[in-house]
Amino acid sequence: MRALVTGASGFVGSALCRALLREGHSVTALTREPQRVRARVAGDLAVAEGSVADPGQVARAALDHGACDVIFHAAGIADVDAPSVVLRWVHVAGSENVVSAARFAKVRRIVYLSCADVSLTGEDRMHWDEKRVLAAPPTGPHARSKLMAEELMLAHSDETLEVTALRPALLWGPDDIDGISRLVRAVRSNGFTLYGGGRNIVATTHIDNLTRAALLAAVAPDAAGRPYYVTDGEFLEAREFYTRLFSALGLAPLRLVGSLPYALLRAAAHDWLRHSEGAARAEVLRAGRSALFDVSRAVFDLGYEAKLELDAKIAELAEWVRAQGGLDTLLLRARPRPAAADVAEQVRAAGGD
Questions:
Q1: With contact defined as beta carbons under 8 Å apart, do 240 and 215 qualify?
Q2: 80 is in which domain, residue-wise?
Q3: Phi, psi of 202 (to 5 degrees)
Q4: For the whole prediction, is pTM greater than 0.85?
Q5: Tell me, what CATH number does 311's domain have?
Q6: What does the alpha-carbon distance between residue 129 and residue 180 come to, in Å, rounded to a whole number?
Q7: How many angstroms separate the CA atoms of 206 and 330, rounded?
Q8: Which residues in the chain show pLDDT less than 70?
Q9: Which pLDDT tens digit goes with each residue over 152-207?
Q10: Pairwise CA distance, residues 19 & 13, whole Å
């Protein structure tokens, strides 16, 4: 397989590059930060400097090292506090550019890395599957922009370009420099509170499970035009997962608060989203209701099987943090939050107005 990975300098993109190389595939990484990719991905990797802001750069990356078969579209913004204009530009306009480039380069399939937040509402999402129809748009500009991008991409799936989308839940695992840094900043700034005693079910997706599902989605004959939830298959209360994670990372203990009327929780979450420094407060919003996704479609269509030994994976993550020099070192390596000015610069660079 010849693969192009967008967003290759990020957590998901770099993990996909490593997984593809381990399987013996030919990989081109599209990124605005070539040195960052080289530092995160070892092996025979072709690196194309560019951005999803420019469909021409995506098309050239798909063709320069031999026409690619699959584009893994992992470019995106994980920080839910990023400005709305940045989220729309990267997720929606960027995805449209990837589709245009894929058609020009005659790519066979796109695997889009979406997220479970596309169904984020004020309800418990217990046993939800991909057929669930939302009565209203999902909560928050990040979730709405991801849903718009997913719907745009799947609508373009046809007999010449097959598009599928994966919806991971709470992503975690080694090499998540930016995500762990946001969590650490939030914990050290305001602490981390779980309402309802943290007894709600939290859906998680380890990066190894996501990359395994992505490689399956690239070749599964029945995946075209469909989204898929991908999770770890564990039934964990939020307090159990975060207590284990925080203990392993040496973070301050959780604050567990008794039950609150959900209307108050939503009001608090709205304030957190407007004023918080990092994503942790948004994660409290997502943890305010239970989430347990039905992955039957991924099992039947993709051959996906969740594999997770929780204690071993948490220990692996803690060891990776220690090997990087600890949490403070990760904070120094984290990228700053994208700003609206970054979008204006990308528009100018792509030849826009």
A1: no
A2: 2-349
A3: -115, 130
A4: yes
A5: 3.40.50.720
A6: 28
A7: 19
A8: 195, 256-287, 342-353
A9: 999 999 999 999 999 999 999 999 999 999 889 888 887 777 767 888 899 999 99
A10: 10
